[in-house]
Automatic annotation (TrEMBL):
This is Methyltransferase type 11. GO terms for biological process: methylation. GO terms for molecular function: peptidyl-prolyl cis-trans isomerase activity; S-adenosylmethionine-dependent methyltransferase activity. The keyword Methyltransferase applies. It comes from the Bacteria. Residues 256-323 form the Methyltransferase type domain. The keyword Ligase does not apply. Keywords: Methyltransferase, Transferase.
Length: 397
């Protein structure tokens, strides 16, 4: 069996865990073609992984130097005139992230910089812009598992700065300590197509928004969270529930808009046609389910607060509500706020749904990125990149 040497090339699955004031966070990243000769990895990783074989792993707390430092001097007071968005009706909202080119005349920013900054306060005359990295000052634990060791690396090729790649996005799901994020301005739940959902979904949409690898990653996530013997509700169900084949629930109920799609779903033991945007009340008794799952549906809800309250009502105490999504959707029916947010901000929005309800605890956010897939579009390195997976879950108090 091959072992990692100084000139090895390897595929490594990294898992980063960290905490914020309101949630726990898990970030997964499959790093392909990691060169132990040229690439930059967190301090101590190369030395600790040398000699490991496929399937072996190491775990460590990242050195503080590997996580961006928090600098108070990067929080700047700005007049409203400095906020120059690409949409005329957009204004700075507390807790939200925007690309730095919105304030391109500020020292340390460039006109083409898409790096995010955060609005941490707003008043009549201006706002405070936090230019610190979203992960600034976090304490992060890392696990690195060797998936594959391939041919020896040469000195040629692209130098990958893996810490920059790992931490591009994470952190934006966290809200400020003293204020919820302002997600609710500018008609957040308006949609391009406000016609009846029943008409839009009258015919089956027998397509997969996610590529094969992403669907497998969803199954893996559910496999870690769900157990045999559960009564499970699939909210906004369709032709598949993305459960691992080995899972044996006691019952599996689907609630969706198209009966034919749900009848194609072999995991379901019962189904119910119901439009949550017209009537958010779930047609089930209190304490009916051990778990509720929703895959690729949260972005269409126009009454999410009522539905999260209803989910808590039909869950048994300690039951789990798991919300999974990616960056693919039906454009006419997705709500405005969802399109406006960055990927990791969307986990912050879903977390806020849980928090606002007051019926949940143990909020966890989860991301899984970096995979390749034979049926996905090619990424920047020319390799087909699988759809990223994001999830937020919590348990009923």
């Amino acid at each position: 069996m091959a072992h990692i040497a100084q000139d090895s090339l390897a595929t490594i699955y990294f898992t980063f865990t960290w905490k914020s004031s309101h949630a726990s966070h898990i970030e997964n990243y499959l790093a392909r073609n990691v060169s132990f000769t040229r690439d930059i990895l967190p301090v101590g990783v190369k030395s600790r992984m040398r000699g490991l074989g496929e399937g072996d792993s190491v775990q460590m707390t990242l050195d503080p130097s590997e996580v961006p430092a928090f600098k108070p001097g990067k929080i700047l007071d700005m007049p409203i005139a400095r906020f120059q968005p690409n949409e005329l009706d957009m204004r700075p909202r507390i807790g939200r992230y925007y690309p730095k080119y919105f304030i391109a005349s500020v020292p340390g920013t460039r006109p083409d910089s898409t790096t995010p900054f955060r609005v941490v306060n707003v008043d009549r005359g201006g706002f405070k812009a936090d230019l610190n990295h979203p992960m600034a000052g976090r304490e992060v634990t890392m696990k690195a598992k060797v998936i594959e060791i391939t041919d020896k690396s040469s000195a040629k090729g692209v130098l990958n700065r893996w810490p920059d790649i790992f931490f591009s996005g994470p952190g934006m799901q966290v809200r400020l300590l003293d204020s919820p994020t302002d997600f609710l301005g500018n008609e957040p739940f308006k949609r391009e197509d406000e016609a009846g959902d029943a008409d839009f979904y009258a015919n089956p949409h027998r397509i997969h928004h996610l590529d094969n690898q992403a669907r497998h990653n969803v199954q893996t996530a559910y496999g870690h969270l769900l157990t045999d013997g559960m009564d499970i509700l699939d909210l906004m169900a369709g032709q598949t529930s993305h459960l691992p084949s080995a899972l044996k629930p006691r019952s599996m109920t689907g609630l969706g808009l198209n009966k034919r799609e749900m009848e194609d779903n072999t995991a379901l033991t019962a189904n119910s046609v119901h439009n949550l945007n017209e009537d958010p009340k779930l047609p089930f008794a209190d304490n009916s389910f051990d778990a509720i799952i929703s895959t690729g549906g949260i972005e269409y809800l126009t009454k999410p607060f009522e539905i999260f309250d209803e989910a808590a009502r039909v869950l048994r105490p300690g039951g789990m509500f798991i919300v999974v999504f990616s960056n693919q959707w039906f454009q006419p029916k997705v709500v405005h706020i969802w399109r406006e947010l960055l990927d990791f901000e969307r986990m912050g929005l879903v977390s806020q749904y849980f928090i606002r309800s007051g019926e949940y605890e143990g909020i966890t956010t989860y991301s899984d990125r970096g995979w390749s897939s034979s049926d996905a579009a090619k990424g920047e390195d020319g390799t087909p990149s699988s759809d990223p997976i994001y999830a937020v879950w919590a348990t009923k108090r």
